[in-house]
Amino acid sequence: MRIQGAVIREQGQSFAIVIVKPHIVQSTSAAAAAIRSFIPVFGVPVVLMAQDGRGRPTYYGRPDIARFLTSVPLRNIPWREYAVN
Fold this sequence. Notes:
By secondary structure, this protein is of the alpha+beta class. 31% of the residues lie in helices and 35% in strands.
């Protein structure tokens, strides 16, 4: 499986962002399961990101990281593709 994501290092903190479908961030149980499945891939805290029909992002995960990401333009995030087994 391939996922789109990014690893960010900001203010001494490292975390990952993973792009998911909107229905994942709308369900706390699905979002929690997704985060648990991605933590071993990245080895750092994971925040999920989904976009609505207009491209507006919604973040789910650690509140401090999710709040920070709302101030970061999507074009400034170093997205890449990751292979996940």
